[in-house]
Amino acid sequence: MSATEVICAACGTHGPLGNTCDACGQDPRLKGRYALLEIVGHGAVGTTYRARDEMKRQTVAIKEMPLRPTTPREQVQRIEREARVLGEIGHDRIPGHRAHFAEGSGKHRAFYLVQDFVAGPTLATEMAGKRYTEDEVLALLDEVLEVLEYLHGLAPPVIHRDLKPKNLIRRERDGKLVLIDFGAVRDVVQDPTTGGSTVAGTYGYMAPEQFRGEASPRSDLYAVGAMAVELLSRRSLIDLVGVDHQLDWQKAVHASPETRRLIERLLSASPEMRPASAKSVRAEIARIRAGESDGGGIRLNKPDPQRAARRAAQHSASMPVPNRAAGVPVRPVVVTDALRRKMGAKDKSLATLLAFVGGSVGAHQWYLGKWKLGFLYFVLGWMTMFIVPGLISAFQGWRMLKMSQEAFDAEYNPALAEMSRGDTLGVAEQIRALHDLVQAGAMTDEEFAHEKARLLGQRAPGTLATLGRDLVESVFEQFEQNMDQLPEEVADQLGRHRKKLEAKGLLKRRRARSDANRGRLDQLTDRRSFSDRRERGRDHYLE
What we know:
Helices cover 43% and strands 10% of the residues.
């Protein structure tokens, strides 16, 4: 993009900076003042631009958040709260607030937040090409904690709630870390816009209490501990989430005993077992870097025996179920056929049939998610004329035939068995909570699929499945743009292949496209039709 080329704030086309846009004839500048130069970030809520304030001749960052009639009220409140809080705070390592306003009408109406522009890569980008020593990680955490100490020391304290590497920028002019994106921020005392029930944050970095809509300054300290794990292990946090949604980090992190004790306290399931403040964590980091140790790490608040039962209840209720009161026992769930279908549970009759009919090639093992055993059965069958695996599978089929439904669920559908016993939180509620995180932009579709498979006791989608889905999506995107250049028989083959993938669940296409659009190949190549489909979203291909 040339120095004078801008993005029109009215229609979104690129063109030279002037008083009118060549495409729509309106002023390309936002509010007649801000020239949008380029997109520097795009998230679930909105888009961030690098822009130029033509009045002050300065570079600024503008965050655009669409305001449509269907926009949830809670999201609008979060936007307004972010602008209000940023206008009330001032710190060298937090982008300064300049202005905020709503502009446009109808579906083009949006809320704009203007801030100081911070040039530099995010910490997530930096992590991709750099390995850190333990001392470098501690120094980095100390920088982040310095900003948190300021935020938590305000009256009332301000909680960021979405601390992660993507929200930290390494400022080019001095190398300091700058904390950005206050879209999930809240005041800890008397925040009427949240009501104490808003689930906000990013999965993996969120403290257990955030899943219940609760947050405190110690919730941000949990995120600091999660960042320490990611920096020291160089592994995605989603791969380290354990059965109870706590990070299983001990084997992945190699650090000194003092640093490990610090991380362990930061990642405590109960907020009261975490360090008391960002200041106390900074003091402990200073001792570790100086080679000092008092043998006990950070001194916590003295335990209150009268609150021991409540702490245990909070720990047991740390699973992600929004708006759930801590310590309330979960009653057994009646497992119906509809619930089995919704959760994708394994069917006892089908598994038994596959054991008898296709057991010689391990068909029942593949169906039950035990693909390694299925492959072993196939290889063993190839070597023994399929006699040995056939006999073993027949025995297993007879065993499943004699099993009660409860015993089958206990072995092959553990999630359903737990729900029917009522000894854990309902898995359906957990999956619903995870889906809410996807809708809020705190979890990606891949992370949701991974967690759902783990909750249901199934194997998470592999790389090949993801690659196949992404590859087919890319092929069809090019296919529809150049339909007229393909022979008819090739187009038919691609169409048949698409239907097979849809049947296997790799592609989930919506059925809203009209018969005319399906039948006429030339209409798919029409530029206006394709542009309209892209504007409606990519959900034509994948959800």
